[in-house]
């Protein structure tokens, strides 16, 4: 990372090989459209290059830093598209609300990591849906509440419980 | 207490990017003041990163070529120096109380904006722009609070907060500070207004306790108002004012 921060393109090439699958994977999950996902993932990788000197190891791992940038960019892309068509968006939320069981299932079966799959299975139904619908589908917690027809405070709490359980199950440290 | 619990539950939604933009910004600002929240949000972000890693899939081969060839045209940012704020020193003969107030308010503003900048600088371009804007606002706020011609009026909102307006004609700006302001109900925001001959014009938002620059033309306004409005604000006040105080003369 330090070499990348000094403008070393070879180091960046190596870093790209490590990180691009994560970036492209999470962006595709949220954005879904392949061409747009590629565009966003590309922007994220260039952002990593641009901001390399601002990465601070004491705050967290490189993967966390990059995943945070990637997920936020993906969500921003989805939401700005939504804002452009509010009515369509409302319709989309309704459409997405029907097959949410499939969504969760599909997301899980396609997950690469056995550990993450196992830990997700350790959550309650509502915790798992709250976490996966927001993270993998880019929904706000309001949209999640609407989708699951659950009260807002319940969703907020389930998101937090769910993340705490995942964090402990995966032994996450910063 | 209640508010603290609410804020804590938001760390998860924040890490999952499940907050609407205004809530996200408000929570990010809160992180600057809350060590425990910062730690929790960092752990949740690391947890979310594992969800991202689990979703990894091979990118199209052509993407690497495009990224590598674009890199030459992208200037790298220098490392950010640690957040520092220039100490604010009042110039000229300010009345003692006004001077003490100005310094206290400027320090409070510096602390909250400084904290915000310090925390957010890992969060990408958006945060960088926000920090720059925050610094600019802080400079303006300091300029008003330490202006030789600063005039002060104090007031109280109907929901119990104490407020102060400091205005400077020389700078053509006014600063409003609030303390003890209850958190607005979900979906509501505090909006400021400037009274121009009986017409209330939007003058920005108040996100809680602290100091904000009143937006708009303050020199010709006769009063400052505060109302609760639906998130995103309104064109004109839609609720009974919580506060209407004359501009300092």
Strand content of chain A: under 5%
Percent strand of chain B equals 15-25%
The CATH superfamily of the largest domain in chain A bears the name Winged helix-like DNA-binding domain superfamily/Winged helix DNA-binding domain
Structural class of chain B: alpha+beta
Give the C-alpha Rg of chain A: 17 Å
At the fold tier of CATH, the topology name of the largest domain in chain A is Arc Repressor Mutant, subunit A
Overall form of chain A: globular
The number of helices of chain A is 10
Helix content of chain B: 40-55%
**Count of distinct structural domains of chain B:** 3
**Helix- and strand-based class of chain A?**
mainly alpha
The termini of chain B sit apart by 39 Å
End-to-end Cα distance of chain A: 17 Å
Total number of strands of chain A: 0
The ordered string of helix (H) and strand (E) elements of chain A is: HHHHHHHHHH
Overview of this protein structure:
- The complex is a heterodimer of chains A (174) and B (249).
- With 174 residues, chain A is mainly alpha-helical.
- Chain A has helices at 2-5, 9-31, 34-51, 62-84, 86-97, 100-109, 114-121, 125-137, 141-148, 152-170.
- Chain A folds into 2 domains: 1-84, RNA polymerase sigma factor, region 2, helix turn helix motif (Rna Polymerase Sigma Factor, Chain: A, Orthogonal Bundle), CATH 1.10.1740; 86-174, Winged helix-like DNA-binding domain superfamily/Winged helix DNA-binding domain (Arc Repressor Mutant, subunit A, Orthogonal Bundle), CATH 1.10.10.10.
- Chain A is globular and about 50 Å long.
- Chain B has 249 residues and is of the alpha+beta class.
- Chain B has 6 helices and 8 strands.
- Chain B has helices spanning 2-15, 21-31, 35-54, 61-70, 96-120, 125-145; strands at 151-156, 162-168, 173-179, 188-196, 199-206, 210-213, 223-230, 243-246.
- In chain B, strands 1-2-3-6 form a 4-stranded antiparallel sheet.
- The chains are: A mainly alpha (174), B alpha+beta (249).
- Chain B: The chain crosses the membrane at residues 98-119.
- Chain B: It is a single-pass membrane protein.
């Amino acid at each position: 990372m330090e070499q990348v921060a000094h403008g070393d393109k070879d180091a960046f090439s190596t870093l790209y090989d490590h990180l691009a699958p994560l970036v492209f994977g999470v962006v595709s999950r949220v954005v879904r459209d392949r061409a747009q996902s590629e565009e966003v993932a590309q922007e994220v990788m260039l952002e990593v290059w641009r901001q390399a000197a601002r990465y601070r190891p004491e705050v967290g791992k490189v993967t966390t830093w990059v995943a945070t940038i990637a997920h936020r960019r993906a969500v921003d892309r989805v939401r700005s598209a939504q804002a452009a068509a509010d009515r369509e968006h409302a319709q989309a939320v309704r459409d997405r609300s029907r097959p949410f069981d499939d969504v969760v299932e599909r997301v899980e079966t396609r997950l690469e990591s056995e550990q993450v799959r196992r830990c997700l299975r350790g959550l309650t139904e509502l915790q798992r849906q709250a976490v996966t619908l927001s993270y993998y589908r880019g929904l706000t917690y309001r949209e999640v509440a609407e989708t699951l027809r659950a009260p807002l405070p319940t969703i907020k709490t389930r998101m937090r419980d769910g993340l705490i359980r995942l964090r402990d199950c995966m032994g996450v440290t910063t | 207490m209640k508010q603290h619990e609410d804020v804590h539950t938001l760390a998860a939604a924040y890490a999952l990017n499940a907050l609407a933009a205004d809530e996200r910004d408000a929570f990010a600002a809160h992180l600057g003041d809350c060590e425990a929240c910062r730690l929790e949000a960092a752990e949740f972000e690391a947890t979310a990163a594992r969800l991202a890693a689990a979703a990894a899939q091979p990118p199209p081969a052509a993407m690497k070529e495009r990224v590598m060839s674009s890199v030459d045209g992208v200037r790298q940012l220098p490392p950010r120096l640690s957040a520092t704020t220039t100490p604010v020193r009042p110039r000229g003969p300010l009345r003692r109380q006004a001077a003490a107030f100005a310094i206290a308010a400027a320090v409070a503003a510096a602390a909250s904006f400084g904290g915000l900048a310090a925390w957010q600088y890992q969060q990408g371009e958006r945060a960088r722009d926000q920090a720059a804007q925050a610094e600019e606002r802080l400079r303006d706020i300091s300029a008003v609070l330490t202006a030789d011609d600063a005039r002060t009026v104090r007031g109280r909102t109907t929901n119990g907060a104490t407020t102060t307006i400091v205005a400077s004609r020389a700078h053509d700006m006014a600063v409003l500070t609030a303390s003890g302001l209850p958190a607005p109900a979900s979906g509501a925001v505090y909006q400021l207004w400037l009274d121009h001959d009986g017409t209330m014009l939007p003058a920005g938002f108040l996100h809680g306790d602290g100091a904000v620059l009143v937006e708009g033309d303050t020199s010709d306004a006769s009063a400052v108002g505060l109302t609760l409005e639906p998130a995103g604000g309104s064109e004109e006040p839609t609720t009974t004012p919580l506060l209407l105080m004359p501009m300092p003369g």
